[in-house]
From TrEMBL:
Source species of the chain: Roseicella frigidaeris
Keywords of the record: Cell membrane, Membrane, Phosphate transport, Transmembrane, Transmembrane helix, Transport
Name of the protein described by the UniProt record: Phosphate transport system permease protein PstA
Family to which this protein belongs: Belongs to the binding-protein-dependent transport system permease family. CysTW subfamily.
Recorded GO MF terms: phosphate transmembrane transporter activity
Gene name of the encoded protein: pstA
Main location: membrane
Transmembrane annotation, as ranges: 31-56, 86-115, 127-151, 157-176, 208-229, 271-297
Subcellular location: Cell inner membrane; Cell membrane
Ranges of residues in domain ABC transmembrane type-1: 90-293
Pfam families registered for this protein in UniProt: BPD_transp_1
Gene Ontology terms describing biological process: phosphate ion transmembrane transport
Bilayer topology term: Multi-pass membrane protein
Amino acid sequence: MSTTTLPALTPVKDAGVAASLGRRRKRLDALLRWFCIGATALALLFLASILLTLVLRGLEGLSWATFTREFQPTTYGDPEAPTGGLLHAIIGSLIQTAIATAVGTPIGLLVGTYLAEYARGSLLGNAVRFVSDVLLSAPSILIGLFIYQLVVLPMGGFSGIAGALALAIIVIPVVVRTTEDMLQLLPNTLREAVVGLGAPKWKMITLVAYRAALPGIVTGILLAVARIAGETAPLLLTSFGNSVLSTDLARSMASLPIAIYQQANSGFPDLIAIAWAGALIVTAGVLILNIVARFAVRSRS
């Protein structure tokens, strides 16, 4: 029985094939690298242009009166008339955002913990996760319409508490998703070690898992706050806005997004300048909140 043997490649031919493959890989690597660099530069260009426009236009309308005075009718053409401000909108946004965060964060944290620690692979857990994902991607105006039917109509009018509840619903799915993801990233050996020492599961979650996942959970909460800080659509159907300072949650309440929306569409240059200042205040507030939270989490870790 005869056997055929394939001719062996000569060392010169082997070296030529390897060099050709090496050059091809280098070209593809360079092409992909420059493609990524170009995409990053393009994204940074758009982001920088938005931030630069926001800073330049916002600083034009920013003054001490912006933080100390309430809304004033337009005084365009009268330099001696008092300039209006955003005090009523700033206070209203702080109240509604604080209430929404205080209500939505514990609910989202507990639901995310249930999905990550108690409901893995269960039918109920999959259903809750699906509903949370749908709520996460739902248009915010639908949430505003839901609260309008559930709270505004029975109460007989717009109110700050209705706006806070609409924002709280937006907070919940964001915190749920980040909490579940951060807890699932923890190795099971960590859980087994704590339970093996005799600690109950609830103590393992609260004293070990939460501490290990704290940076990610805080990031999720900050993402939720950043999202609701600029929401306008649900507030138009719930708190509606107000031109005077009001801290009564049973009445319509002002907020920065609504004030920006109304004054930017007014057509008067002085009100448009104040709207740009309001947008700058929202952006700076979210940035400062992120920086402070980062340093707080780093100091505890």
